[in-house]
Amino acid sequence: MIPAWLLARSGGQLRTAGITQCPRCFAPVLRGLDAEKCALPVRADIGPIDEMGEAIALLQGRATYDLVGNAQKKELEHRYEWHIRNPRRYPVLAAHKCGSPLPAIPARAPEILTEAESNDAPF
Questions:
Q1: In 10 A of CB 35, how many CB atoms?
Q2: I need a surface site. Which of 1, 79, 80, 116 has the fewest CB within 10 A?
Q3: Do residues 48 and 106 lie in contact, with contact meaning Cβ atoms separated by under 8 Å?
Q4: Per the domain annotation, does 1 fall within a domain?
Q5: Half-sphere exposure of 59 toward its Cβ, with a 13 Å CA cutoff?
Q6: How far apart are CA 90 and CA 69, in angstroms?
Q7: Does residue 120 fall inside a structural domain?
Q8: Through-space distance between the first and last CA atoms of the chain, rounded to whole angstroms
Q9: 41-45/28-33 β-pairing
Q10: How far apart are CA 95 and CA 42, in angstroms?
C-alpha cells in the first residue's frame, strides 16, 4: 500500500478529479484538489467554457481551472494570469457557484487561411 502523503505528492489518486453532486444545489460538478502542493478542495462546473465565459467567471469572482489529464485520470489545475494570457492547451472549467451556471460553449477552433485567402486585399 502506498502512503497517502506519497500519493498526494506524486499526483496520485488524491489529485484525481471525480464527478459528484453539489451538496447544496445537487448540480453535477467535478471535485478535486487544485494543485500539487498547498492544494485546496474545489468544485467546478462540468461544462467547458470559452474565453468569454472565462472572462465572465473571473468578473463574478470565480476561479477557473484547466482540466488536465488523459482518459483514465483528470486533474483540476488552477489558472493563473500567465495561463489565461497564453493559448489554451486544455479544456477550461469555472468554479461552481450554486444557481449561476455559465453556458458551456466549446472554444472555437482557430481559423486556418489558405495562402490565396491570406494574400487577398480587402479593397
A1: 13
A2: 1
A3: yes
A4: no
A5: 7
A6: 9
A7: no
A8: 70
A9: antiparallel
A10: 7
* Per-residue pLDDT reduced to its tens digit, 79-109: 998 888 888 899 999 999 998 887 766 555 5
Domain region containing 103: 16-107
**Cβ partners under 8 Å of residue 1, min gap 6:** none
* Total domains, the chain: 1
**Cα distance between residue 104 and residue 47, in whole Å:** 5
CA contacts within 13 A on the Cβ side of 12:
10
Return the DSSP state at 29.
E
Query: Can you read off the three cell numbers belonging to residue 58?
Result: 473571473
Q: How does residue 10 score in pLDDT terms, banded at 50, 70 and 90?
A: very low
Residue 8 in any domain: the answer is no
Start-end of H helices in the chain: 4-9, 51-59, 81-85, 115-119
What would the grid cell of residue 69 be?
489529464
27 within a domain of the structure (yes/no):
yes
pTM equals 0.72
